Amino acid sequence: MMNIFIAGGTSGIGYALAVHYLSKGYRVGVCGRDINKVPKNNLNSLLVYEADVSIMSSIKTVLQNFLDGHKNLDVFINCAGSYAEDVAGQISYEEAEQMLQTNILGTINCFEVARLLMQHQKNGRIAVIASVSGILDYKKSSLYTKTKRSVINIAEAYHRALEPFGISVTTIAPGYIDTLKLRELNGHDLSKKPFLVDVDSAIKIIYEAIDTRKKLLIFPTKMKWLMTFLSVLPSSFLNVIMYRKAKWMQQD
């Protein structure tokens, strides 16, 4: 039986992925800072742990507990993330710190802990959820976008380093997914979210990419095309476009 562990798996995409892997008969564990987020009707077979990815000892301990008596870690997925928008406004220092700690330090911690467990196996799959926004590189991008671009770059470095050990690294860069969190962040109005993907469709796409050891997945396809077009624009022009987009999305 395969052992699957998902950091940031107590809600949202992480939890939906956990349920999907469970449906295939795998042994699945998840962790998060608040285990009360796990739905009350959670399947008893899901193993739930409390951990903070920004603290390496925390994620290391829960993984050791999850693997107790089991030989290999087959798949590790990092879905943990923190979001605050600051293109058209300001964010607090606490919000900025949480994004940096979770999205960058947490990403490195997860890679390191998974790597140490998988290297002796000479096999394994590591995946990380980034964002399609991280594909774009321009001066005035939001802190969130810059952290997610860092996630993509970190994953690229680990892909190159771990490939000789038979460990695949899959970077997932999704567009807008119709999750409860996205609805809450937008007052339950997603009319300004282009190319919206439902959760079930997103899970199938993500699962397939990890299963086939795809290096980078950008979806949906229309969003990928849009990002490709925007990425060739001059940085100054892109700055204006993205600022106006952020302001428009904040309007009622």
Can you tell me about this structure?
This is SDR family oxidoreductase. Keywords: Membrane, Oxidoreductase, Transmembrane, Transmembrane helix. Belongs to the short-chain dehydrogenases/reductases (SDR) family. It comes from Aquimarina addita. It holds the Pfam family adh_short. This protein is an alpha/beta fold. It has a single domain, classed as Rossmann fold, CATH 3.40.50. The protein has a 7-stranded parallel beta sheet, with helices on both faces. Helix 3 links the parallel strand 4 and strand 5. The longest helix is centred in the middle third of the chain and has 26 residues. The chain is globular. The termini are far apart. The model has no long low-confidence stretch (mean pLDDT 91).
Helix-strand blueprint:
Layout: E1 3-7, H1 12-23, E2 27-32, E3 47-50, H2 56-67, E4 75-78, H3 93-118, E5 124-129, H4 143-162, E6 167-174, H5 180-185, H6 199-211, E7 216-219, H7 221-231, H8 235-250
Parallel strand pairs: 1-2, 1-4, 2-3, 4-5, 5-6, 6-7
Helix pairs in contact: 1-6, 2-3, 3-4
